[in-house]
Amino acid sequence: QLWEPAQANLLAIYGDSVSFAPQHSSFSFSFSIRIRDAILRFDSQADGLDHLSQLRTQVIGAPILRALERVSSKKGEGKIDEQVEQIQTLKTHPRFGTCHCLSSDEKTMIIFIVEVEDTTERALARLFLQQFEVAQKKVAQSPHCEFRRANEPTSEVERLVTSGHVQNYENAIGFLSFTFFPFHVKTAEARWRATQLMVDFFPYLDKHIKSTKCYMHSRMRLMKDDLLRELGDSKTQQQNNGKNNRRFVVGD
Q1: Model's pTM, two decimal places?
Q2: DSSP alpha helix (H) spans, the chain
């Protein structure tokens, strides 16, 4: 599912400076780019290097970008019937689950099925996912965002299961979806920015969960040190009070 849109996207950007190797069972695909030839296709060397630095998004996000372009185009002008919904599994994160794209001419929905094994990380991830839905309601004209727990699957999630793109979601924390309508992706810049954010969602979640755990552990260590210091001061004070309360009896 990634091969065709990613290949088309890379060819559109880098032209004949990119070459593709035969598909292998272990990889979606492999390719090579002649850097000097690729840079010459752009107005400046800085512009070329900037594009090359975004290769990850250009490859993984190619299906999302195509879906958003389909949404932004006028109905009836596309080659695909507007009633046909395309379902694609975009990527699988080794620690956090899978990402899926459901697209039609009317809207594009990106669904993240989040699965985490560690108990602490599950609790933190659930809090972060819920905050996305809360924050979206405060930002006007932002894509619709919805979080559902694992026992509250949406009809779109059920279609993923029916179509065979998802086997089961028993261990999932929940489902976070972003829905893009035509007015969200009117310009090429908006479509590219949306693609970047969707591709970087799992790394973003991973970074914030690790940072939160690190902060919690550092706070716990500080609290432990403060507690031990207070206990030491209390013990010293008790010993000093005991010395001051001694009584001496002097007799003839």
Answers
A1: 0.77
A2: 3-14, 35-39, 45-52, 55-60, 62-72, 119-136, 155-162, 188-199, 201-244
